[in-house]
Write a structure and sequence with these properties.
Number of domains: 2
Structural class: mainly beta
Order of helices and strands: HEEEEEEEEEEEEEEEHEEEEEHEEEEE
Largest sheet: 8 strands, antiparallel
CATH architecture of the largest domain: Sandwich
């Protein structure tokens, strides 16, 4: 997988949270059935089988669409790369994808790739050039056994584009996608005449066009699958390889209540605290002695905040129904000097801070009833 340029804007955290799982699944599924992958990172090696290396004739390494150096190949109109691929059955589904950027269209026919078989060679993806009979220079097409699919717009715009050709023998259909979108389809009543043997990038050998079928531009990230990728997978592949994920214009999530699951140690005293900012924490209810290992409670987020933590309290009395926990804090002890019926020993007003909490009986205790 190519690495985006460090200055390229990255997906927002929110979008990553929403799409992260789907993206991971998509990337994993993108390797299912992938029999050949040529990212051209410094050479023409098949990343799915390192022993398979394409034969480079005249093509030179160049920056890719993320400006990574030596990560794509430039073709000058006479160059080509013959990339080996594992054999794919003639009746098997097949998907071929790759990225291209058109340089100039001064040839009749600019072959991006040609699928070579034992009995046929005209199974290709191409860009129309300046042939006298062509009135749509720069359009992208796919041709197989004289049945073609052709775009209505020119892609000779100086930009990188992804092309995908999808073969589906079960539906007897061939489809052409550019930048994740379906451009057209054609019937394929006959399966490929022979198993795919190799793929020639950047050139072709078409009768009557010798020397005029070379591609001028850049090619990168060529993939070959022995399965027919679904339209959804093709769209996902484009999003992944382009790093352009579907935009999320706006999203608001409101949570009214939250369920807190607490995993406790029986016999331990806890204090549940909540916070809205992870800085200021407030006690939620009184300390409690755990009698079960798991406890679940629902709270109103507007009242408690959305963050929670458990604090272990010093060992408390076994009978918590008879005692109340006094939490740490600060208060003013004494009475104002102008208070009615104030005694002299009730002042002065003094601020007291309790650094530790303590248990105190809920009821008055007779003299001598307490031993600790």
């Amino acid at each position: 997988m190519k690495t985006p340029h460090p200055r390229r804007p990255q997906t927002a955290i929110l979008l990553a949270l929403l799409l992260g799982g789907a993206t991971v699944c998509a990337q994993s599924s993108m390797t299912n059935g992938l029999v050949a992958y040529y990212p051209f990172n410094g050479d023409a090696r098949n990343q799915m089988n390192s022993s398979q290396v394409g034969v480079v004739s005249g093509a030179v390494l160049a920056p890719d669409r993320f400006t990574n150096s030596n990560s794509a190949y430039f073709f000058d109109g006479s160059a080509q790369i013959a990339v080996p691929v594992p054999s794919v059955s003639p009746v098997s589904p097949l998907t071929i994808s790759g990225w291209f950027k058109v340089g100039t269209i001064d040839h009749w026919y600019l072959a991006v790739w040609v699928r070579n078989t034992a009995t046929a060679s005209q199974d290709d993806l191409y860009v129309n050039g300046n042939h006298p009979s062509y009135v749509s220079a720069g359009t992208v097409g796919h041709l197989y056994q004289a049945t073609g699919i052709l775009s209505t717009k020119s892609y000779a715009d100086g930009l990188w584009h992804q092309a995908v050709v999808r073969y589906d023998p079960s539906a007897q259909r061939r489809e052409l996608y550019v930048d994740g979108a379906l451009l057209g389809q054609s019937s394929a009543t006959n399966p490929p005449p022979a198993a795919i043997q190799s793929l020639t990038l950047g050139n072709a050998n078409i009768d009557g066009m010798a020397g005029n079928e070379g591609f001028v531009g850049w090619i990168d990230d060529v993939r070959i699958y022995d399965r027919s990728l679904s339209p959804q997978r093709i769209a996902s592949l484009y999003w992944i390889e382009s790093q352009q994920y579907p935009p999320v214009n706006s999203l608001t999530v409101e949570v009214a209540t939250v369920r807190v699951n607490m995993f406790l140690e029986v016999g331990t005293t806890y204090q549940l605290e909540s916070s809205a900012n992870l800085v200021t924490w407030t006690a939620v209810g009184a300390p409690f002695l755990a009698t079960n290992s798991v406890s679940s409670v629902e709270f109103d987020v507007a009242e408690t905040g959305r963050f929670f933590r458990l604090q272990i309290q010093p060992g408390g009395p076994a009978d918590t129904d008879q005692f109340v926990w006094i939490a740490p804090g600060t208060f003013v002890m004494g009475s104002p000097s102008d208070e009615l019926d104030r005694s002299a020993n009730e002042g002065p007003l003094t601020q007291v801070t309790l650094t530790k909490g303590f248990w105190i009986s809920k009821h008055r205790s007779p003299r001598g009833s307490t031993s600790r």
